[in-house]
Amino acid sequence: MLLWDRGMLWGFLLLLSGAVGQRVIFPGNVTVNYPGPVCAVKGSTVTLHCTFTPHKSFIKDGREYPLRIIKVVWCKNHEICQGSTPSVYDSESDTNNPRYQYLGDKKGNCTLQIRDIRREDNATFRFRMETNHSAGHHTVTSGVKVTVIDDPQMTIISSRNQSLIREGQTETLLCISSCSFHQLEVTWFRDDHALSESGPALQLGPLTAEDSGNYTCGLKTNSKTRSRPYELRLEAAEEGWFFTSVFLIGLFTVNNCFMFISCLFH
């Protein structure tokens, strides 16, 4: 009876090893590099920079089969992002919402751009790749969280951190919010007259008396976001002096807090 039990045990182990030998094996790992949490102003454009590394092949029964990406999908608030799940972008669909632009490809770039961002975009976005064999389908569920705010109060900061400067110098004013400061389409005003510049940075110079005044800025799509006035006053340049200056400015975020650096060289 003991020998029979041993035979059954060896038979079971052989059967198990045969089953294990038929399992699907993937060389390497699938990765998707999502950006960190994004804060976006309603009406702005936000780009979710994203890269991915797909499975290139899989091994079954000792034989390697190549894989090829045939479909990419972005969806929101769904962990698997497949089947009948509503998507914001599907590479096989002809009815994608034009607000969502796929700037990536099927090789390693999965960047998604969201235009005219709305409250409904306050969600977690996830990327899915599908291959010519179902064994290679994959969704990395961590995703990227997008938070949308409605009416941020815009603020103007100066490269010099002072409002009184000399004629002939240069000045850069930045229009920022408590949320994203890049990719914002803003309108600049001087003494309530609209200027032609539309980016978040307004570069002035060499400054003349005409540049003096009260500057404000606000989102093109939302007049409620207009900033408080920033007064720029010019002091006449001293006669007999030739004055030039070069600025290096930087604006970046650390843990969602704005950091501003300015350097002045004479």
From TrEMBL:
Coiled coil: none
InterPro entries: Ig-like_dom, Ig-like_dom_sf, Ig-like_fold, Ig_sub, Ig_V-set
Domain Ig-like stretches: 27-147, 152-227
PROSITE patterns: IG_LIKE (PS50835)
Domain of life: Eukaryota
Pfam families: Ig_3, V-set
Annotated signal peptide: 1-21
Regions that span the bilayer: 241-265
Keyword Ion transport annotated: no
Keywords: Membrane, Signal, Transmembrane, Transmembrane helix
UniProt KW 4Fe-4S keyword: no
The protein's name in its UniProt record: Ig-like domain-containing protein
